[in-house]
Design goal:
There is one protein chain. With 480 residues, the protein is of the alpha/beta class. The strands form three sheets. The chain has a six-stranded antiparallel sheet with strand order 8-7-6-11-10-9, with helices on both faces.
Length: 480
């Protein structure tokens, strides 16, 4: 409807309802000479139909007509639910005071007596359209102000940025009659996230590739609003034209949300429009909304950053910094959990402890930097060589542990032997002639009596020492 309102003003539509073809011809010539667009109806029913379909800015209405007279037509016009209230000017040969009063009482805005003066008629039509436009703008300003009050209330009522952004897109979509209204958070040059969309309230942090949205990138670069009257034909969209087939007849408005000269995001609207696009008042309204919403968007970006840092710190707390494997503390925590689960559900659980043979020689000969590189390579091979359900940890300096849930002793031994062969056969960067081998100990529950997870570690540790005393580079099993 917003586009219909603008069309009324720009096309200056005037409907003539008069059964006199002579009057019709005269009025059409006068209006046409001043740039008005006119249509004609011979009687009231047809006139009411044209009003409902065409939405004229003004109606020139004769009183004496066949069927429904002008008074009744005027009353029916005023009862119609129209996007814009048309100005009704009675044009009649009847000029009695009572007739004028009755016409004005029935909803007419002015009364012009035939024969009329051409200049006077044009002046009265122009004045009535201007008055109607003034009241329409007041109504629009009132609506926009009410919307801003509601948005401001939402901003102050909650710290939940998601809730605030949802209110914003819903209110703006209602005012602008948008097919889509969304707020996009800008993360990187080609990465953004739709934080809220009025057409689908379930949308939360939907990642979008900004390379497919040149209109958004244009706003990010220039930091000013961008309005495209027809998205499918605008030169800016030529590179992604194949993706716009379903957007025929769509206009787009993108307004940047700027803070400290940085574009945090955009307010993005799509509407079904005819020629003319968005008015400056609509763009200003969206700009005010965008400026008021930056706090919520800033909070969303801050929340995203804090969440990422929190997840990173949480991960770092359980990871070994050198190898990125789980650390010693996390290993014991998970082993306790897996052991309790194995006891409760009577399922097998195995543990592999691994120690690099003669690792001191590597550090002494090649230096600690090469030694660290060897540790990282071995860690990556172990992680790649086990199942996703297995838990790999750096147990000590050159020791590693693998927890194998639902795994019997034989399966664990086979896994340990396979890992030993992988590590022995690998060529390590920085080592000249030396090769790397591992001594490995394996223990399982319930094959080996164990009351708790600590017993299982002790059994695997004893098996590891057996491997060391047996000449290294081998796999040993805890004594039955």
């Amino acid at each position: 409807m917003a586009d219909q309102k603008k069309d009324i003003l720009r096309n200056k539509r005037v409907l003539i309802i008069d059964d006199s073809l002579t009057s019709k011809a005269v009025l059409e010539d006068i209006l046409s000479a001043e740039g008005y667009e006119s249509r004609h109806a011979m009687e009231g029913v047809e006139g009411l139909r044209i009003i409902s379909e065409w939405n004229p800015a003004a109606v020139l209405l004769d009183l004496i007509m066949p069927g429904m007279d002008g008074m009744e037509v005027c009353r029916k016009i005023r009862r119609m639910n129209l996007p814009v209230r048309p100005a009704v000017l009675i044009v009649s040969v009847k000029d009695g005071k009572d007739t004028v009063v009755e016409a004005l009482s029935n909803g007419a805005d002015d009364f012009i007596v035939k024969p009329f003066n051409e200049s006077e008629l044009l002046a009265r039509v122009t004045a009535q359209i201007r008055i109607n436009e003034f009241y329409r703008e007041l109504e629009e300003d009132k609506r926009n102000l009410e919307t801003m009050v509601e948005i401001t209330g939402a901003l102050s009522a909650t710290l939940d940025s998601t809730e605030v952004l949802s209110v914003i897109v819903g209110k703006v979509a209602a005012v602008m009659e948008a097919v889509r209204c969304s707020i996009v958070l800008i993360v990187k040059d080609d990465e953004g996230y739709v934080l809220a969309s009025h057409e689908d309230p379930s949308v939360r942090e939907l990642r979008i590739d900004l390379s497919k949205y040149p209109e958004i990138k244009e706003v990010i670069n220039k930091k000013v609003p961008l309005a495209l009257d027809d998205i499918t034909t605008h030169p800016l969209m030529s590179g992604v034209k194949k993706n716009l087939k379903e957007l025929q007849g769509m206009s787009v408005l993108i307004v940047p949300i700027v803070f400290n000269d940085e574009v945090l995001g955009t307010l993005f609207l799509r509407t079904r429009r005819r020629e003319g696009g968005y008015t400056s008042k609509e763009i200003d309204f969206c700009r005010v909304v965008a400026n008021s919403s930056f706090h919520a968007l800033k909070n969303a970006r801050l929340f995203e950053r804090v969440s990422m840092e929190k997840e990173y710190l949480k991960e770092m707390a359980v990871r070994d910094q050198l190898t990125s494997l789980y650390n010693h503390n996390f290993f014991y925590s998970r082993l306790d959990e897996e052991f309790e689960r194995a006891v409760r559900y009577e399922t097998p659980l195995s543990l592999i402890l691994m120690d690099i043979d003669n690792f001191k020689h590597v550090n002494d000969t090649y230096g600690h930097r090469v030694g660290d590189a060897v540790l990282r390579e071995i860690s990556a091979m172990i992680k790649k060589g086990v199942r996703k359900t297995d838990v790999v940890a750096r147990y000590g300096g050159e020791e590693f542990a693998v927890i194998l849930p639902h795994t019997l002793l034989k399966g664990a031994v086979d896994e340990a032997e396979r890992l030993r062969e992988i590590i022995e056969s690998h060529v390590y960067a920085g080592l000249v002639t030396d090769r790397i081998t591992m001594s490995i100990g394996v223990a399982s529950y319930p094959q080996k009596a164990a009351i708790n997870s600590g017993d299982l570690v002790n059994h695997a540790d004893n098996a590891l020492y057996k491997a060391k005393w047996s000449g290294k580079n081998c796999v040993k099993v805890a004594d039955p």
